[in-house]
């Protein structure tokens, strides 16, 4: 896969590392740290030195309860920093957005790949007007990516939320309406926590179909199971446990973005700044499950962990 001016071998067992750059005041882990251009560029330089293969720039926090901002404000946040990164460093840049105007502005500024946390299905799950969420329409953001000829990362997301007790009749009805390509029996079964892997596989396949309808080629698609989004704690853990199964069934290169997320905090009962060991465990599990990329905050520690895993896997066994 070509991202920017670099080739990424998605058929090898190598795991590429995506470094996170949030130019937001309110992201759950590093909000407010890199809003200044100089601070952002310094952090990018550090991540490159530590071994980052790609930089993911986000301009709107997606933490639970985040404040949604306008596409104009988000574009203003990301465009200048992307242009500056591309001017100063020879590294591909990803734009983390689900808004077409932001994607367009970021691509014009130099972004090389689109990372959409709704997998081209934002309107389907968030638009109340049925006429505006027709299942076979190609959303504008997919058209933007296709027109630019850039690769995409499609994350699984839905409207079920993080609390199983809140999946009431209204939420479930909305979920059914947004997934009319599957039977009601299958969908109702998939809402059960133990069936979260099936729900993710179906959803990612749907996002892939949308991408193909937009004209995005198969070898330009990466998928993401969506750790921390619309899943209970048990569902997040089961997603990790079933990661290899999900990778195999979807059949596309997969990125895992679990760094410092609440799944880790809940399991270890630790605040955001003490979740790096838990993050490294998820990175190693991603590698063992044949994921091709991980998205992380602490590039150095995760790169080292992956190098150690490579050393173990490449060590020849003694003759028997």
**Mean model confidence by pLDDT:** 92
- What integer value in Å does the Rg equal? 19 Å
CATH superfamily: Dihydropteroate synthase-like
Spatial order of strands in the largest sheet = 8-7-6-5-4-3-10-9
CATH topology: TIM Barrel
CATH A-level architecture: Alpha-Beta Barrel
Shape: globular
Instruction: Assess the beta-strand content as a share of residues.
Output: 5-15%
The low-confidence parts are: none
Number of H- or I-type helical stretches: 13
Overall number of structural domains:
1
What does this structure look like?
The protein is an alpha/beta fold. The chain has one domain (2-314): TIM Barrel, CATH 3.20.20.20. The protein contains 13 helices and ten strands. It has helices spanning 37-50, 71-88, 100-109, 122-126, 140-148, 169-177, 184-190, 196-214, 233-241, 243-250, 262-268, 276-288, 299-314; strands at residues 2-3, 6-7, 16-22, 54-58, 93-96, 113-116, 152-155, 221-224, 255-256, 293-296. An eight-stranded parallel sheet has the order 8-7-6-5-4-3-10-9. Strands 1-2 form a two-stranded antiparallel ribbon. The longest helix is centred in the middle third of the chain and has 19 residues, at 196-214. It is globular. The protein starts with a strand and ends in a 6-residue tail after the last helix. The model has no long low-confidence stretch (mean pLDDT 92).
């Amino acid at each position: 896969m070509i991202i920017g001016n670099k080739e990424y071998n998605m058929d090898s067992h190598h795991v590429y590392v995506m470094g996170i750059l949030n130019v937001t005041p309110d992201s759950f882990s590093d909000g407010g740290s890199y809003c200044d251009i100089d601070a952002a560029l310094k952090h990018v330089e550090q991540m490159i030195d530590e071994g980052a293969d790609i930089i993911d720039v986000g301009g709107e926090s997606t933490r639970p309860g985040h404040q949604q901002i306008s596409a104009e404000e988000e574009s203003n946040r990301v465009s200048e920093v992307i242009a500056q990164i591309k001017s100063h460093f020879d590294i591909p840049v990803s734009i983390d957005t689900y808004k077409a105007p932001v994607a367009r502005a970021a691509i014009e500024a130099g972004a090389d790949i689109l990372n959409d946390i709704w997998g081209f299905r934002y309107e389907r799950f968030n638009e109340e007007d049925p006429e505006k969420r027709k299942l076979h329409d190609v959303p504008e953001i997919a058209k933007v990516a296709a027109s630019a000829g850039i690769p995409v990362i499609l994350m699984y997301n839905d409207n079920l939320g993080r609390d199983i007790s809140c999946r009431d009749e209204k939420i479930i009805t909305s979920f059914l309406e947004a997934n009319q390509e599957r039977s009601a029996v299958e969908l109702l079964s998939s809402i059960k926590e133990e069936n979260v892997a099936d729900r993710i596989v179906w959803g990612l396949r749907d996002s892939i179909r949308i991408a193909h309808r937009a004209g995005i080629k198969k070898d330009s698609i990466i998928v993401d199971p969506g750790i921390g989004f619309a899943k209970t704690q048990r569902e997040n853990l089961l997603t990790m446990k079933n990661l290899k199964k999900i990778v195999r069934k979807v059949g596309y290169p997969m990125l895992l973005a679990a760094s410092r997320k609440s799944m880790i905090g809940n399991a270890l009962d630790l605040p955001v700044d003490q979740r790096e060991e838990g993050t490294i465990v998820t990175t190693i599990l991603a590698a063992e499950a044949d994921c091709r990329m991980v998205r992380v905050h602490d590039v150095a520690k995760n790169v080292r962990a992956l190098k150690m895993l490579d050393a173990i896997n490449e060590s020849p066994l003694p003759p028997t």
